[in-house]
Design goal:
The complex is a heterodimer of chains A (288) and B (256). Chain A is an alpha+beta fold and 288 residues long. Chain A has 9 helices and 8 strands. In chain A, a hairpin with a 3-residue loop joins strand 2 and strand 3. Chain B is built from no helices and 24 strands. Classes of the chains: A alpha+beta (288), B mainly beta (256). At the A-B interface, strand 8 of A face strand 13 and strand 14 of B.
């Protein structure tokens, strides 16, 4: 019991006790504060911003708690802070990419160009956003692969948020033979779009005479649809166009080359040579 | 007409509401449903007759509670808004008020269990095209109605799969309003049984000027032209009172 009495009388015991109490009270309070901040931020902003606020509160609190405990234990903070400064500079040089990603992540969360669940196109790779973290954005590609894109890459690249707006337009390039009546073809295309249940009747389908192509008259049909109906619309309208064109006798053009001899109206001249023309076999034997 | 009916194991019951034909079959451990649409028979109204239904068709199957043999088919309004045009676009002078009437194709909700507590889903009597109301970035997806809004309820088609919706529009401002399209939030409308047709509750819209949002109200009653009616199906979602819609006034149309 004497050792216990000595321990209680020792000033170091009280210092340790105070530090333990600080830690025991500080950590749960920080958890509570972080969780409250997260809830408050979630009600007003996005999930990502709420996560950032929660982590910010917790780690700042932990830093303050460590400083308080070290001060309580009698460490000289000026020396520690000086050393921390030097270590910080060294670390920042060593972790430039990570820091850049973290800062990019903060900008992404702040700017909110997309949210979890959106389908985005980053440098030609399309996928659904699974999470937006401090270092990277995690995605699931359309063929079910996991993709991690560093935040810095996202900030530097052109990103298309495909599902941002409630409706989209599907542009179909259709080539028909030059012999076809263009007005009739355009009218048919609008009829096909109007009859398709996935095509929105408003905004109206867009139809553009695009070009006199090499092998076809090129027409663009732009059909508006709800952002969730892309595959249904694409499959159904393509089939309908083919069936309807077949039924109406409209030729869908394919790439071909026409040879002319200087005039479109003249037939290609063919000259038949009569007499002792050498056969290819004879010509070959003579040359050898 | 729409009462609950009992289907014993092995039996199939058939409903037809306008162009929509519905079969419900009871097997020992499951319910099966099948739907067909016949646009050439919009007036037909057949209720709960025994009919084995098409044999080769692919039926939708639901697990069933063993002692549950009761089925109820109830009309419902589409969950998405419906978008309708007037017969012709016209201008609404300031200080005027008008009532339009719109025919809304119903959905059929299939319910089983005591009090219809278990849903086997709902089927639209008519497949409507998708449409959109408002700006491409912020607007509202809905169904396009093939029929137009009418000034006289007698001009509406009287068919068993359609409910008549009165829309009362007021323009107390001094500004003329152009009316081209109308977007009806059907999920806030109730269904009433009239003497010879189904009615929905009244939709009221007050125009407040080209830059101000319109005020929308969905009172718990239908229009006086419906005559004696009996409240029947409540709205899917109660309407927020005094709702304002700002974004649509720029489109020379209004939303209710």
């Amino acid at each position: 019991m004497e050792w216990l009495a000595n321990l209680v009388e020792s000033p170091r015991f009280y210092i340790l006790l105070r530090s333990a109490i600080l830690l025991a009270i500080g950590l749960p309070v920080l958890h509570l504060l972080a969780s409250g901040g997260r809830r408050l931020a979630k009600a007003r902003t996005s999930d990502q911003a709420a996560m950032l606020v929660g982590k910010g509160i917790f780690y700042t609190g932990v830093l303050l708690l460590i400083i308080m405990i070290m001060q309580n234990l009698g460490f000289k903070l000026t020396a520690i802070l000086g050393a921390a400064g030097i270590i910080g500079v060294a670390l920042s040089f060593a972790s430039q990419t990570s820091l850049s990603n973290i800062i990019s992540g903060i900008f992404l969360i702040w700017e909110r160009p997309f949210a979890v669940g959106d389908v985005i196109d980053v440098n030609g790779t399309v996928g659904m956003v699974l999470s937006i973290d401090l270092l990277s954005v995690k995605m699931r590609t359309l063929d079910n692969r996991f993709l991690r894109v560093p935040n810095e890459t996202i900030i530097k690249s052109q990103v298309i948020t495909i599902t941002r707006f409630p409706i989209r337009r599907l542009d179909l390039d259709i080539g028909v033979a030059y012999k076809e009546d263009v007005d009739r073809v355009m009218k048919l295309l609008v009829e096909i779009a109007d009859a398709n249940p996935y095509s929105l009747d408003e905004p109206r389908p867009l139809i553009i005479f695009k070009n006199f192509g090499n092998s076809a008259i090129e027409i663009m049909l732009g059909v508006w649809f709800s952002k969730t109906d892309l595959l249904n619309l694409r499959n159904s309208i393509m089939c309908e166009i083919k069936k309807r064109f077949d039924a109406e006798g409209i030729e869908i053009a394919f790439p071909h080359v026409s040879l002319y001899t200087g005039s479109a109206t003249q037939p290609f001249p063919v000259r038949v040579v009569e007499g002792n023309a050498a056969t290819p076999a004879e010509t070959a034997s003579e040359s050898s | 007409m729409w009462e609950a009916t009992t289907i014993n194991p092995g039996a199939t019951r058939h409903w037809q509401v306008g162009p929509c034909k519905l079969w419900v079959r009871r097997l020992p451990d499951e319910w099966q449903t099948y739907v067909e649409r016949d646009p050439d028979s919009p007036h037909v109204e057949v209720w709960a007759v025994d009919d084995p239904g098409p044999g080769e068709a692919t039926w939708t199957r639901f697990a069933a509670v063993r002692d549950d043999h009761q089925v109820e088919v109830r009309p419902q309004l589409p969950e998405r808004p419906v978008i309708v045009r007037p017969e012709t676009s016209f201008l609404f002078p300031g200080g005027s008020d008008l009532t339009f009437y719109v025919s809304i194709p119903l959905h059929l909700g299939i319910f089983t269990g005591p009090g219809g507590e278990r849903s086997l889903g709902e089927v639209p009597t008519v497949i409507l095209s998708n449409s959109f109301f408002g700006e491409p970035t912020t607007g509202q997806l809905g169904f396009a109605l093939k029929t137009t809004a009418r000034r006289d309820p007698a001009d509406l088609r009287q068919q068993p799969h359609l409910a008549a919706c009165p829309v009362h529009v007021r323009n107390p401002t001094g500004v003329t309003m152009a009316f081209e399209r109308l977007c009806l939030y059907t999920r806030h409308l109730a269904i009433y049984k009239g003497s010879n047709r189904l009615w929905t509750s009244l939709a009221e819209v007050t125009y407040r000027g080209p830059t101000e949002p319109q005020q929308l109200k969905y009172p718990d009653r239908t229009g006086p032209e419906a005559g004696e009616v009996e409240p029947w199906i409540p709205p899917r979602e109660p309407a927020p009172q005094g709702r304002l819609q700002r974004q649509l006034s720029a489109f020379k149309s209004f939303i209710t």
